[in-house]
């Protein structure tokens, strides 16, 4: 290299791995209007007490079919996401229902989100506040 030439400056690039095709965000398309026909999916009424919901989640978390959750409460919608994740991880479901960890849920990696979405198929409601409440889980 001649004396009057400068070494080229390094170019810093930030690379990221693209997300897997088909993997949705934690709440993308999750909220639907209440349907008359849930198909093969079981329906969980979120007005049930926490103990009944926890028992349901223990049973359904590792079954071959997912479930639909029905609620009019945005708070309950966030809670069922947290509780479903807890059920899949073998964690404390009642605690997740009572005090969802929003930071933890926002940080879920794509494989965990995919696992969640294969169990919790949809949250059905007629209340717009439910979708608004789930915005708290946006990254």
Instruction: Report the average pLDDT across residues.
Output: 89
Task: Compute the number of structural domains.
Answer: 1
Helix and strand run: EEHEHHHHEH
| Proportion in helices | 25-40%
Unreliable stretches, pLDDT < 50, 5 or more residues?
Answer: none
Structural class: alpha/beta
Characterize the biggest β-sheet: 4 strands, parallel
| Rg, Cα atoms, Å | 20 Å
Number of helices: 6
Protein model, in words:
This protein has 139 residues and is α/β, with parallel strands linked by helices. It has one domain. Helices cover 40% and strands 11% of the residues. The chain is built from six helices and four strands, in the order ββαβααααβα. The protein is elongated, with a radius of gyration of 20 Å.
How are the secondary structure elements laid out?
Elements: E1 31-32, E2 42-45, H1 50-60, E3 67-70, H2 74-89, H3 93-98, H4 102-106, H5 110-119, E4 120-124, H6 128-134
Parallel strand pairs: 1-4, 2-3, 3-4
Helix pairs in contact: 2-5, 2-6
Provide key terms for this protein.
four-stranded parallel sheet; 6 helices; 40% helix; elongated
